[in-house]
């Protein structure tokens, strides 16, 4: 059974009880969903690390023609050093790290990555069965040199996670990752980092009023 058939079937399944037959929420194939995405919160990096990571919403509204769009900027406020946050394929939320942690349901794709994905018609979701194996390219990402005052920016399109029920469901979603830092700006990624810290942010999805 393909995914469209599965979702259509699920959408019309009845839960029999006192109130009779009820339609299951959020599973219909025609739910293209106009949503508004807001920045709920973002962690402040502790002052001794001399690093700032800032999230900016470039596009808040999800429509049939465009998804929500965020930008994450990492700035080294201290001396030259190396961080585990790179650009392109080695950005902070690359590969399997693109998925929201709590709860699952949203996925961050770099724009250049998203444009190569097959998606459901009028939906920001990969055209895949929810039971498809999720695989990621096998390549290494190491330590990236940051000069003092240097910033690195990465943009992400906010898509639905095809492996989860519903479509960009209202709620608050969090992403969190460990950041590694090396005092040696020319460090190799295989070296033990000088220090590590956790950083994350949350987005809230609402129905468009």
Characterise the protein shown here.
This protein has 209 residues and is mainly β. The protein has helices at 3-11, 111-114; strands at residues 35-42, 51-59, 61-62, 68-76, 81-83, 106-109, 144-146, 151-160, 171-182, 195-207. The protein starts with a helix and ends with a strand. The relative contact order is 0.25. The model is unreliable at 1-30 (pLDDT under 50).
Reading the helices and strands in chain order gives HEEEEEEHEEEE
Rounded to an integer, what's the Rg over CA atoms?
Answer: 20 Å
Poorly predicted residue ranges: 1-30
β-strand number:
10
Q: Approximately how much beta-strand content do the residues carry? A: 25-35%
* Tally of alpha and pi helices: 2
Q: How would a textbook summarize the main sheet?
A: 6 strands, antiparallel
């Amino acid at each position: 059974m393909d995914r469209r058939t599965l979702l259509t079937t699920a959408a019309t399944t009845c839960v029999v009880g006192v109130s009779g037959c009820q339609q299951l929420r959020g599973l219909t194939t025609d739910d293209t969903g106009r949503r508004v995405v807001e920045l709920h919160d973002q962690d402040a990096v502790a002052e001794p690390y001399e690093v700032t990571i800032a999230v900016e919403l470039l596009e808040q509204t999800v429509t049939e023609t465009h998804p929500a769009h965020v930008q994450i900027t990492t700035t080294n406020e201290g001396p030259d050093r190396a961080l585990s946050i790179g650009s392109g394929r080695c950005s902070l939320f690359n590969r399997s790290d693109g998925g929201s942690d709590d709860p699952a349901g949203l996925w961050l794709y770099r724009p250049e990555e998203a444009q190569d994905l097959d998606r459901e018609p009028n939906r920001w979701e990969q055209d895949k069965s929810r039971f498809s194996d999720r695989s990621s390219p096998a390549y290494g990402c190491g330590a990236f040199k940051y000069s003092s005052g240097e910033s690195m920016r990465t943009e992400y399109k906010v898509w639905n996670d095809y492996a989860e029920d519903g479509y960009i469901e209202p709620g608050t979603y969090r992403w969190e990752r460990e950041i590694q830092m090396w005092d040696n700006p020319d460090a190799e990624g295989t070296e033990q980092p000088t220090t590590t810290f956790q950083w994350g942010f949350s987005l809230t999805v609402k129905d468009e009023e």
